[in-house]
């Protein structure tokens, strides 16, 4: 039997028991649940990742809704406890065994609509940090090694006029592409399984400047060969696992910059470390890792890698929005509300002082609608 888990309780006499396995940013999500007859239990354990036993202890023998990362054991426990709702605080849900959720009649919520720009901005930051060697230079400065301007000191890559490559030109990939085109006047080449109309409709209104060029590549290899900066934004699934492997690394330019703010396993990280060792001018910016929270051996020693701990969606507005949407997914399901028409247009749920619509903002998959949703609504969480 799992040991008791420490929790903080809001509205103890609430009719519905909702458990959050993590403390989430902001307070609106708490108010929304507590004001709607939910007894909210927030796990206050210090550990970042809870074990299956920890979560079983949290579910107990009566629970109406929950937010975490799961499979059959936990979904069947949630079902036995009378639960019907689960929400990730993420757009992605590759942490969720959707089939197991379906078998147990549990709806799976996620939180699109608030992450796109924040995540794209982090990818753009990593692109710049890697191209201009910001982290190396910062460490050098702090170590007291700077003793005067030198022509060769931390020479990096100019972005203007170079080519940015995007693999997976969905919401985030397209937003990132626009930032790099508009901000740095880069030319674009992208690869996606589908034509990205949202990206192709966009054009540079550059007052009198040379317009940038853009094209959709026939193959991913074309992007890897041609681009100077490549950013990965696909979902993680069987088709994208180890998308960047030794063969594909080998065809990239020796001084290319590779950015990953999608999912760690999209890159074969062991192969990447070898490539970084062999090609000191090849640089990467990584927000996600194959075995999060760990890095593959050797990566931490590579000066040509900028690494950050999965913070792409970490802006205050986004994280508070994610918390609100996750809570409203669970609440909406408990109340029997329908699913909101467009999970990417969620502003009505985010208005601070307004009553949110009587709908679940984004139920990515449940028994009734699972097959009907297009792939664009299926997202994946880390690990
Ligand atoms: N690092 C972080 O904190 C965050 C990471 N993400 C991750 O970013 C990724 C993209 O998110 P969105 O843009 O919202 O999703 P999206 O669904 O709008 O875009 C994904 C794109 O990838 C394309 N794609 C799928 N398989 C492909 C393949 N084999 N080759 C090339 N393209 C392929 C799809 O056609 C789609 O256009 C997801 O993995 C998501 O979980 C999202 C938010 C935050
Ligand atoms: O939303 C997601 O998929 C995340 O990775 C959270 O930042």
Automatic annotation (TrEMBL):
PROSITE patterns: D_2_HYDROXYACID_DH_1. InterPro entries: D-isomer_2-hydroxyacid_DH, D-isomer_2_OHA_DH_cat_dom, D-isomer_DH_CS1, D-isomer_DH_NAD-bd, NAD(P)-bd_dom_sf. One of its GO terms (molecular function) is hydroxypyruvate reductase (NADH) activity. Its EC number is 1.1.1.29. Residues 85-337 form the D-isomer specific 2-hydroxyacid dehydrogenase catalytic domain. It is an enzyme of class 1 (oxidoreductase). Its main location: other. It comes from the Eukaryota. PANTHER family: 2-HYDROXYACID DEHYDROGENASE-RELATED, GLYOXYLATE REDUCTASE 1. Belongs to the D-isomer specific 2-hydroxyacid dehydrogenase family. This is glycerate dehydrogenase. The lineage of its organism: Eukaryota, Viridiplantae, Streptophyta, Embryophyta, Tracheophyta.
